[in-house]
TrEMBL record:
<dbReference type="GO" id="GO:0016740">
    <property type="term" value="F:transferase activity"/>
</dbReference>
<keyword id="KW-0808">Transferase</keyword>
<protein>
    <submittedName>
        <fullName>Lipid A phosphoethanolamine transferase</fullName>
    </submittedName>
</protein>
Length: 246
């Protein structure tokens, strides 16, 4: 599972006081800030019918230009634990570029293009394909107090090269996230409808999340998740992450 697929994964608060947070626009909130250099470290554990799958990911976010563009780099370390295979190695490296064409008052939109390389150190740690993923993101505050933020995203994952013996990647995703801000904390719920055309089945996911700022330049979050649908890729999962601004 690629968490918050349609969303730029970064957090920042602008504090009026210790307990009061001032917000500016939907694309500059918890998990969605384009204007800070950021490092994210997170670990995601997934339980599947064939065993466990663990990803430790290093993610770098780097704004460029007039800070309406953002570059993202992902370096995943994968571990599998099955009755026949217990391995650890490098997963598929990925790079993405995001752009905010519109932000006004309570509403904003962004687009993203991501390339995932066929670079895993082991067959079990990657798709065996080069994958292009375009994404469109729309964010909007609900109500006048800017405590509820709704995000919706549509994306398409398409493979265009790689191992001919591996399945092609062709997946459509429609994801919705609702965040609630209170003090230095946030709580979120998310559901993503994923249809995999290659296997002709749904691989949907859902999660809840709690996060908290614990210093001026660092935050953490936890979230449990589950997979559902006739062709779900995993049963349940748990992710823990830390974000550091620099």
């Amino acid at each position: 599972m690629k968490l918050t697929l349609a969303l730029v994964f970064c957090t920042i608060f602008s504090a009026q006081s210790q307990d009061t947070i001032k917000y500016s626009n939907p694309l500059a909130e918890v998990r969605f800030n384009f204007f800070k250099n950021s490092v994210i470290l997170f670990n995601e554990y997934l339980d599947t019918d064939a065993g466990s799958f663990n990803t430790t990911n290093f993610r770098l976010l780097y704004p460029i230009g007039k800070k309406t563009f953002l570059l993202r780099f992902d370096v995943p370390l994968i571990s599998t634990n099955t009755p026949s295979v217990n391995k650890t190695g490098l997963g598929d490296l990925a790079v993405a570029a995001s752009y905010i064409p519109y932000v006004k008052n309570k509403m904003g939109m962004a687009v993203r293009a991501k390339i995932t390389s066929n670079s895993a150190s082991d067959l079990n740690f990657g798709t065996g394909k080069w994958v292009f993923t375009p994404t469109f993101i729309l964010g909007n505050y609900l109500g006048n107090h800017k405590k509820y933020l709704w995000f919706s995203a549509v994306e398409q994952q398409l493979s265009f090269a790689g191992d001919q013996n591996r399945n092609d990647i062709n997946v459509s995703v429609f994801e919705n996230t609702l965040l609630y801000f209170f003090g230095k904390n946030w709580f979120g719920i998310d559901t993503a409808i994923r249809y995999n055309y290659t296997i002709d089945g749904f691989q949907n996911t859902a999660f809840v999340e709690f996060g908290r700022k614990f210093s001026s330049d660092s935050m953490f979050y936890i979230h449990p998740s589950l997979g559902y649908g006739g062709a779900k890729s995993y049963n349940y999962g748990f992710e823990l992450g830390v974000l550091i601004l620099f």
